[in-house]
Write a structure and sequence with these properties.
The longest helix has 13 residues, at 44-56. The protein has helices at residues 44-56, 111-117, 119-124, and strands at residues 2-11, 18-25, 28-32, 35-37, 58-73, 78-92, 103-109, 137-143. The radius of gyration is 14 Å and the shape is globular. It has 3 helices and 8 strands, in the order ββββαβββααβ. The chain has a 5-stranded mixed beta sheet, with helices on one face. Strands 3-2-7 form a 3-stranded antiparallel beta sheet. It is an alpha/beta fold. Helices cover 18% and strands 49% of the residues. The protein has a single domain, classed as Nucleoside Triphosphate Pyrophosphohydrolase (Alpha-Beta Complex), CATH 3.90.79.
Length: 144
């Protein structure tokens, strides 16, 4: 299995809305926080800052760590390590500039909408509508 490092960000606005992106996956799509693969020579922090900029148009500052998760993808034979940070917007406007053209839409969503759009991931990241910051955690999420 080939190792793939992925960095993503939970970015909240002043009203506790979460920044989400609609990812294209073949003929289907899924919602999640902005993020993507770490490129050669990048740190996790550099990768997530770049990915959020490309996928949403926002420049961010990292404010904490949400989680380190890992899983095995049998079909692609990848061993993924997914690091999710907390971040805040420091500049920019909502605009998709994804060079891979895999992002269909970017929105700010309240907790109920986020839970509806990405129910499994909402639970995996231990998000809640009462408190949008959980203590950092590690989880092995098995085979996909």
């Amino acid at each position: 299995m080939r190792r793939v490092d992925v960095a993503s960000a939970l970015v909240y606005d002043d009203q506790d809305n979460l920044l989400l992106v609609k990812n294209k996956n073949g003929d289907s799509f899924y919602w999640g926080p902005p993020g993507g693969a770490v490129e050669e020579g990048e740190t996790l922090e550099q990768a997530v800052i770049r990915e959020v900029q490309e996928e949403t148009g926002y420049s961010i500052a990292i404010t904490g760590l949400n989680s380190v998760r890992e899983m095995f993808f049998r079909k692609s034979e990848h061993h993924a390590l997914i690091v999710t940070f907390y971040a805040r917007v420091i500049s920019g406007d909502l605009e998709i500039a994804d060079p891979d053209q895999e992002i269909l839409e970017a929105i700010w969503a309240n907790a109920d909408t986020a839970r509806t759009l990405m129910p499994s991931l909402f639970e995996q990241l231990k998000l809640s509508s009462e408190d949008n910051k959980t203590m950092a955690f590690y989880a092995f999420e098995g085979l996909k």
